[in-house]
Amino acid sequence: MRYNSILKSAVFCLSTAFLLAVGTAIPAAAQDVPDLQTPKPPLVLDAQGSFVVGGEEIAAAAGDLGQGAAPGHITINQMYVEYMIPHGATKVPVVMVHGGGLSGKSFQTTPDGRMGWNEYFVREGHPVYNVDQVSRARSGFNPTVFNKVRAGLLPPAALPNISRTSDEAAWQNFRFGPSFGVPWPDEQFPVEHAADFSKQGIPDLNAILTPPAPPALSSIDSYKVLSDLAIKLKGAVLMGHSESSDFPLKAVLTNSTGIKGAIFLETTVPTRCLQFTDQEIAKLATVPILFEFNDHLNQQPAGVLASFHNCKALIAKINAAGGNATMLHPAELGIHGNSHMVMLDKNNLQIADLILKWMDENVEAETAEK
Amino acid sequence: MRYNSILKSAVFCLSTAFLLAVGTAIPAAAQDVPDLQTPKPPLVLDAQGSFVVGGEEIAAAAGDLGQGAAPGHITINQMYVEYMIPHGATKVPVVMVHGGGLSGKSFQTTPDGRMGWNEYFVREGHPVYNVDQVSRARSGFNPTVFNKVRAGLLPPAALPNISRTSDEAAWQNFRFGPSFGVPWPDEQFPVEHAADFSKQGIPDLNAILTPPAPPALSSIDSYKVLSDLAIKLKGAVLMGHSESSDFPLKAVLTNSTGIKGAIFLETTVPTRCLQFTDQEIAKLATVPILFEFNDHLNQQPAGVLASFHNCKALIAKINAAGGNATMLHPAELGIHGNSHMVMLDKNNLQIADLILKWMDENVEAETAEK
Cβ of A109 and B51 within 8 Å? Predict the structure, then answer.
């Protein structure tokens, strides 16, 4: 029996107490400090902290680093990593990578104050490394193009597109319900705290990493940063979500040395599971891979159902090549109403248990055999 | 005897082992996972996690949230807060606010892998709330002006200035040494890991919070977010550093209800302690305030020595108004070589002890009396 069982009653009674009937606007229940739950027992950590990996030094011209700034050097394309190592950890480290328009906040406390996956995986014995994607949040971004455009040295078209998910787009694309403000009857996302989820959305600058004109710098490479991190950790499972869902697979193709397993959570982009060549599929067959898709796939947004089927086809190809790939679709197990933001759903720990079980059976067991 | 004493030997022997003679370029010792220290005993937390406070909803037009994006609503000006609550905490919560071109990473693990102030204050019994400033890192920023300029709807001059501290500017302004690559003989900053410090620098978008043209939105107000947070926490000490050094004082002026103490760490801006009216000084006199300045004040950068003296004059005025303001200048206590980035210095825990002692004597004692 997992730790989950101990928590379940406390977790569910609080969240359901706040579940209000909602209308056609985003619910306004504001998160407050008393919403933050205090799970028992205390969390005992052998270590916690943060570091920054990857990155390259560039020379910036006068003004590139702000109005009137002298020329100088800065680091760009680095990746911030925060970690918690449970007391007496024996299980494989897990690296968590958030999705588009979000940060490492995604795997922390939920918008309604429940335990995030980062702490839960730690409580289950896994060291957890939670990152901010390259060019996002605490990883920073390269400011030089913005200052050059501001100074008239580059045209406005040189600016990267900056994407920020609106509350309305989140409701539809993250599958909170059929129309803005209306949840699915079985919805697991804590929609009464949608306004708090809106606060953890941030601008997505990934477009800056793929400049339209060459040369693209080789180290602008989130995949290499991740495969390098797995090596530094002497073995890790990589978990990607949505925008980063295929980062773990790309990291396997870059350098699989440190990668003990790859977890692909929820993409709504149907081409993402179609992009691999037979040669690449042969390489993907060397690492245990879990794909995970949640509920309401046949309703919206366009593409998610096709994506689910395309990933199933990829799984078949990986397994035909001798690999170990699995689809976890909770709805097939009778667990309904999970959203795209499954790590924040009300039953987030129930879904985590399924992933932990997969790691126990496919990663820990395999490592033990070797 | 503080926990510091237990750690001292382990902490110092590792850092000095890495201290290499450096030349005229930024030292290249790259941080790696083995650099990360594992303090004993394990850290026992009653709770840890994150939440987001403040913010306001705005309506974005088509294209404002990215090329082709539909109109919709987003939240801006919110503030990300991460927290750790030690087991059996009895001491006053501390809110830590980082400085310019940096994020909450400043109070975490040092660039050479030692314990950050956030964990140390927790180990000393204080709940710690470490934030990303409004418009920075995990707090996000308002992307609409960037997308409008890119689309040609606003002129390039509408872009906010984005400031990023170069390695060279950091060396001088953060008082690592007399010239780039050369440390002061008694320098406490871990200069052998300056390249790792470079990786935690990020773009500073504070200029976006003070648009040149009115109306400035009232809730674009880091001070109010902080004073509100102190109330939510039912009392807290606010600590600001450098760019945010005066945020705790401004928060006192906004609403002192929840503020049990204010800590002003290191500003190089001489006007910052000159900005308060007599009426405001009378209000500052209602809260215990600690000012802290480090070493090499008479050398560089220009302004820091004047700032030190101006803050001493402010202290005298606050105390003349019946307040309790103190200057902590470790050099006067025989502790030399501390930098602007004191929370990352090799003796960061020694300086933390002085701050903790001030809190014990001026905040905890005062609270106990009431």
Answer: yes
